[in-house]
Each structure stands twice: as C-alpha cells, then as structure tokens.
Amino acid sequence: MAWLEQHAPELIFWVTIASLLTLLGAILAVPWILSRLPVDYFSAPERRPLCRQYGPPGLLLSLAKNLLGLALLLLGLVMLLTPGQGLLTILLGLLLMNFPGKYHLERAVVQREGVMKALNWIRRRRGQPPFDSP
Q1: Distance between CA 56 and CA 72 in Å, rounded?
Q2: How many DSSP H helices and E strands does the chain contain?
Q3: What is the spatial distance between Cα 71 and Cα 86, in angstroms, rounded to a whole number?
Q4: Is 34 helix (H, G, I), strand (E, B) or coil?
Q5: How far apart, in whole angstroms, are the C-alpha atoms of residue 34 and residue 74?
Q6: How many CB atoms lie within 10 A of CB 128?
Q7: Taken in order 14, 20, 24, 30, is the CA torsion positive or negative?
Q8: Largest CA distance in the chain
Q9: pTM above the 0.85 mark?
Q10: Buried b / exposed e along 2-40 (16+ C-beta atoms within 10 A)
C-alpha cells in the first residue's frame, strides 16, 4: 500500500496517457474496421474463425487479437477507477476477443435502431454499402 501511495501520481499520469492513446486509437480504428467488414457481418448465420480461414497464420492472428482484447479489457477496468475512457476500452476489448455468445451479443446490440443507424452512417461516409439487418 505504501508503494501505491508513493507512486500514485506517476501511475495516474501513465494511465491517463494510455487512456488518451486508446481514445485516439478508437477514433481512428473504428471507422477503418467498420468499412472493411462484409455487408452480412451481422446477418450471416455463423462466422468462420480466423484459423479456419487462414490456417496456421490465422491461429497466430487469432491469438494476438485475443491477447490485445484481454489487455484492453484489463486496461479498461483500471480506467474505470482512474481518469480515462474505461467503458469504451472495455467495449473494444470485448469486441476483439472470442468468447461463447459473442455473436448473439453483437447482434442484440446492433438490432437497436440507433446503433445500426450509426454504424451505417460511418460506412456511408467511407463509401461502403450499409450492413444487412440481422
């Protein structure tokens, strides 16, 4: 506990920097990712995992994606208690990770009218057709 009290300002500084970098990354990455998803991303009956699409390199990509998602999830939990974009970071982490029920959760969120409207607005600005409704 003494270590935490001694290093609290430094810790808050670095968490704030991480938060700002995460926010900037989200602002840049979300439109880029949304414009590259297939039109049927939310309406397809099932998804093919990266390891089935790309073989062994896909397995490494999947592992890296899940580790990044876990890191963002943990960083987001820290940011809930300190200054930062905790909820946004947790959401990004969950979207990157693979877990049972993720596809159904994504579809439930996207079926909300405002969410689908916002996603399709971003796609339209990038010159992409709108997503098919789930």
Answers
A1: 25
A2: 6, 0
A3: 12
A4: helix
A5: 24
A6: 17
A7: positive
A8: 56
A9: no
A10: eeeeeeeeeeeeebeebbeebeeebeeeeeeebeeeeee
Q: pLDDT by residue (tens digit) across 49-70?
A: 666 667 778 788 888 989 988 9
Please give the share of the chain, as a percent, with pLDDT higher than 70: 91
Rounded to whole angstroms, the Cα distance separating 93 from 77 reads 10
The tokens of 50 are what? 């990266």
Tokens of 44: 């397809």
Categorize the per-residue pLDDT at 84 as very low, low, confident or very high, splitting at 50, 70 and 90: low
CB atoms within 10 A of CB 101: 8
- What b/e string do you get for 43-77 counting C-beta neighbours within 10 Å, with b at 16 or more? eeeeeeebeeeeeeeeeeebeeeeeebeebbebbe
Of 33 and 84, the structure prediction assigns the larger pLDDT to: 33
What 8-state DSSP symbol labels residue 129? P
